[in-house]
Amino acid sequence: EDQVTQSPEALRLQEGESSSLNCSYTVSGLRGLFWYRQDPGKGPEFLFTLYSAGEEKEKERLKATLTKKESFLHITAPKPEDSATYLCAVQASNDYKLSFGAGTTVTVRA
Amino acid sequence: NAGVTQTPKFQVLKTGQSMTLQCAQDMNHNSMYWYRQDPGMGLRLIYYSASEGTTDKGEVPNGYNVSRLNKREFSLRLESAAPSQTSVYFCASSVRGEYGYTFGSGTRLTVV
To answer: Which residues face A56 on adjacent strands?
Structure first.
């Protein structure tokens, strides 16, 4: 069974204070690892897909990296508008569905 | 460019009542999914439809049924609601599961 564990559960940052979120996973053959952002009261919004170890993707202040066992979401010089819950999910190579972690809630104070 | 539309947005049911959650997508996606989200547990898959005419159970299907009405619409039915089904329900769609999902805005359901 695919498993996804995210840490920490919550992260409080000062504006400009860079940090990283961790997503550890076990899956029987990885097709893709996905990062989503979720704002309160809304559905998750797609950020990145990573397919193979060593791959990196960037979007504004966010950078996602992937190894064979985990992924990191680095937030560089965060702003208050980066406050959200960040979800990690994996898709196995023989499957359609995504398995999600419980998420990391990031709060950035001005 | 509506994406994925869910109705209703909020609902309160009494134990034992039935209801259907509606989901429609306008992106010509093949695959559709129903998830529930509970505090501390993340998103859990209830049912999914890989393509029109097919449906399969996910991680937590008990107490639910689904219908893939056509390529656009995928409904979730609670036949006899229980307090344990209090949750936020999300519908999502994707192109054959290869890419990221597009999620709806959710239905917040309370069963009393």
So the answer is: A65
pLDDT reported for residue B98:
58
In the DSSP assignment, the letter for residue B13 is E
- In tens, the pLDDT along B22-35 reads 999 999 999 999 99
C-alpha span between B74 and B67 (Å, rounded): 6
Residues B46-54, mean pLDDT to the nearest whole number = 93
The per-residue pLDDT for range A11-41, each reduced to its tens digit, is 999 999 999 999 999 998 999 999 999 999 9
Best probe of the B interface among A96, A100, A104, by most B CBs < 10 A, is A96
CA distance B3 to A10: 30
d(C-alpha B76, C-alpha A78), whole Å: 38
Q: Report the C-alpha gap between B33 and B48 in whole angstroms.
A: 4
CA distance B53 to chain A (A): 15
Nearest C-alpha of chain B: how many angstroms from A11?
A: 15
Instruction: Give A-chain residues touching B90 at CB under 8 angstroms.
Output: 43-44
List, as ranges, residues 23-62 from A with C-beta within 8 Å of B.
31-32, 34, 36, 41-46, 49
Pairing between β-strand A45-50 and β-strand A56-59 as defined by DSSP bridges: unpaired
> For residue B72, what are the CA distances in angstroms to A3, B27, B45?
30, 8, 19
In the chain, the amino acid numbered A51 is Y
Name residue A75's amino acid.
Answer: I
